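The passage that follows is intended for readers who have already worked through the single-chain material. We present the inputs for a multi-component assembly, then the predicted structure in tokenized form, and finally a short commentary. You are encouraged to pause after the input and sketch how you expect the pieces to fit together before reading on.
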Amino acid sequence: MNYRQFFSQAPTADIARNLLGHELMYQGPQGLLAGWIVETEAYLGEQDTASHAYGRGKTAYSASLYGEPGTLYVYQIRSYICLDIVAQASGIPHGILIRALEPTQGVKAMTHNRGKTRFELSNGPGKLMQALGIRDRKLDGEAMDKAPLQVNLSCRREPIQIITGPRIGMRKGAPSSNWPLRFYVAGNPYVSHTRRRDANLKNYGWRDEQDGIKLSSHA
DNA sequence: GTTGTGATGCTCT
DNA sequence: GAGCATCACAACA
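Having made your guess, compare it with the prediction:
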């Protein structure tokens, strides 16, 4: 399964859901930084009032959202950088926002980059990019199979339960603000807006026994 | 623990 | 010049 297939052979919401439990890996100046994807959101193009494609169509800024499936769409909101992966065929501006990671490799570097510890490392879209040390849009428009930032599709941790809910942070009252397009691993403490008592500190929401900040796979 | 608000940088009209 | 797919903190209960 290559990226082009993975990001185009199912409805965008299903792809976003399937991304949970895969590992995001960034080969940067600080070495390999990586983490399990524990939270995603789907954005459904020009019909979706929350999408960057809504209302304006294609602009210079959002051009890469219209690219091939598996293209990186890196954008800025306020003073933070966020990461989308483009889904569906070229010309269809669907995207999947990576909202949170459970760090596996390079925790020390992430702690340094963020100036925070534990669950504050990567429990939000702006935070996780800061943790990885990405502070500009240089990766925008790159194909993931050639970029230093990739999702490892060859292995996956299995969430015990996946919660579906409305997306975070959009204008209330907008028609699409209630669409159930946010997906996250139930009980994982790195999911944004998680309350302490909802976190499952025993298994972090994964079916296997592996502990939170431990080494990743055998890949 | 929960809610509100101000800082922030860049794009598009 | 408005408006954001955010974050961190302060204030309150």
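Commentary: Confidence is low (pLDDT under 50) at residues 212-219 of chain A. The radius of gyration of chain A is 16 Å. How closely did your sketch match?
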